[in-house]
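Notes from hallway chat w/ T.B., transcribed later so I don't forget. T.B. wanted the structure written out for a chain they're using in a teaching module, and asked if we could keep both sequence and structure tokens in one place. Agreed to drop them here.
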Amino acid sequence: MAESGNDFTLADFLGGISDTVRPGTARPVVVRAAELERLPADQVHNPTALSVAGRLPTTTFEIFRQTIPAGESSDMQRHHHETVHFVISGEGHSEVEDDTESWSSGDFVYTAPWTWHRHYNDSTEHPVEFLTIENSRLLGLLGVSRRQSAGLVTVAQARARFDTRAPFKEDNS
């Protein structure tokens, strides 16, 4: 059966769809905390520690454990993928474009695609721990993954550095 091209037929395509779905065989099922792989500091661009559960056989999403030290923050960044941070412990706030929202243990923080954002640890004594889930692998498979870091700057500074086109204005004519 041809999946595309001149030999493709809808009848063959529909005939190839099965009512039975076999269980996945991807392994390992569990990656232990000690098996997380820490990203080198020179690839993180901020004072946070990022460890990836890279041995998990996920094909469309990536999972990280992120630690923001007391009084520190992540970098101002944007990327094509969506991200959800689950706050394991700690409290802080996030800047996402022109919005600032506080969060604490048990909360979920969502970052939409291509929005400038930065996460802050508001404690001067305790680190913040995030479980970070993003669909970066899926976008990588599609060839549309992109990430920009502006460093430890404000949203306005990031926009000034990277946004070279005029601001969008709605045409009401």
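Follow-up for T.B.: The chain has a mean pLDDT of 90. Might be a good example for the class.
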